[in-house]
Amino acid sequence: MNTDDELDRRFSEKSAWREARTPWNLAVAALRDAATPHWDLTQTNPTDAELPYPVEALMEIARQTSALPYDPAPLGTASARRSLVDRLAAGHDPDDVCLAASTSELYRFLLDLLCDAGDNILVPAPGYPLFDMIGDLNGVELRFYPLLEADGWSIDLDALEAAVDSRTRAIIVVTPNNPTGSCIDHEWPALIELCLAQQLTLISDEVFAPYRFRPTDGGSLLDAAGAEQILHVALGGLSKYAALPGHKLSWAFVGGPTALRRTAMRRLETIADTFLSPSSSVQAALPALLDLAPEMQRAIRGRCLENLSQMESLAATSAVTPLRPTGGWSALLKMPRILDDEAWGVRLLTEARVVLQPGSLYRFGGPGFLVASLLTPTERWREGMSRISAVVDRFG
Ligand SMILES: Cc1ncc(COP(=O)(O)O)c(C=O)c1O
Fold first, then answer.
1. What is the Cα–Cα distance from 290 to 287, expressed in whole angstroms?
2. Measured between alpha carbons, how far is 309 from 268 in angstroms, rounded to an integer?
3. Is this model's pTM higher than 0.85 or not?
4. Peptide bond into 179 cis (omega under 30)
């Protein structure tokens, strides 16, 4: 039998992640293994959330686009890139768009473009855990800048600035952020000024942009005054935009001063050419999929708003404080301080068979945050919420 150390010697250090074995992970695994009925409020895969997909229309698009010739265009086909600009970024040059199979892959491309091993990038906390893995794989250090709960999860700009050093290459912002649901708004000028002063690239992850509950909240980096002075990138993708994660297509809009932008695009082209990852068929289908997307966005926004109002009625009857997000697919429950988030997660699993993620998975600083997916089918959500309330009442 090989020991862990012997096995580790055969593989790279950067891939030596250990399976998380926290009490919450173990309790979730035990519940699922025992096939015990439970109420999972963490489902984020829209294709598994009982949403009304336009199946016939999707099949017709696939029929028309799956048997076309292969066009190995590294940054994506001209027609796919043009369709994105026409629908999402009027006035942007299609030559300054890069396609990849997913937003995660675009992050990989961007770190390859901007960073050498030992460089660092700044990312929000709380935030999406994907960055940890991508940072590890690229040998890039992540520096977390705090979002301030008391100020609607706005960026702590002083802490952000203090985190910059000579090895910092980029600031990543996520708007709406996963899982706080907060949007960047008044922070754009300070972010742009800092990037200009320190020669940093500003990357704005806007995958959840169509899910702002009031469209006037927040806006795209592409529209921010002064963004043209710095190298900047706005990210989006079909997995959220059209609720089609299996179609595997995402985009990066790149902007900024001409020499920087052209160099970035030339280098991105070579990186993308190494993989040529998005399929021809999804690129050919893109204009039709973008046209279908508003239908899915409406269905998801309706689901999220219904679940949010259900969650808010919990506030009236229990010691749980639901935090209303500005956008996105997640909701936060702030639990009474008698337990930390992990202990609350375990208690809800064992006493109510309700699955919620402890906030520590997303680097919440303070205790007692649990994260729920607003995509959860409404009946399950309702039952889950009333079970949470019963456990909290019983506990004190
Ligand atoms: C903020 C954020 N960015 C990127 C992604 C990854 O998107 P993709 O499915 O396009 O890789 C996710 C996935 O949930 C996300 O929450």
1. 5
2. 43
3. yes
4. yes
| Pocket probe mutation, ligand 1, options 207, 277, 282, max atoms within 8 Å of Cβ | 207
Ligand 1 neighbour 341 (Cβ under 6 A): no
Distance between CA atoms of residues 384 and 296, nearest Å: 24
Domains in the chain, start-ordered, CATH in brackets?
Answer: 19-52+293-395 (3.90.1150.10), 68-291 (3.40.640.10)
Q: What is the mean pLDDT of residues 105-127?
A: 97
Residue 279 buriedness (CB in 10 A; 0-12 / 13-18 / 19+):
middle
Structure tokens at 301: 């926004």
Ligand 1 pocket, residue 128 CB under 6 Å: yes
Residue at 176: amino acid letter: P
Burial of 396 (0-12, 13-18, 19+ CB in 10 A): exposed
3-state secondary structure of 328: coil
**Spacing, Cα 213 to ligand 1 middle (Å):** 19
Mean predicted confidence (pLDDT) in 380-385: 96
Query: How far, in Å, CA of 268 to CA of 193, rounded?
Result: 25
Task: Please tell me the distance from the alpha carbon of residue 114 to that of residue 107, in angstroms, as a whole number.
Answer: 10
C-beta separation of 388 from 348 below 8 A = yes
CA neighbours closer than 13 Å in the CB half-sphere of residue 250: 25
Which of 43, 48, 110, 130 to mutate for ligand 1's pocket (most ligand atoms within 8 Å of CB)?
130
**Could you read off the pLDDT of 245-304 as tens digits, one per residue?**
999 999 999 999 999 999 999 999 999 999 999 999 999 999 999 999 999 999 999 999
C-alpha span between 279 and 101 (Å, rounded): 8
CB 40 within 8 A of CB 268: no
Distance, CA 133 to ligand 1 centroid (Å)?
13
Ligand 1 closest atom vs CA 329: 16
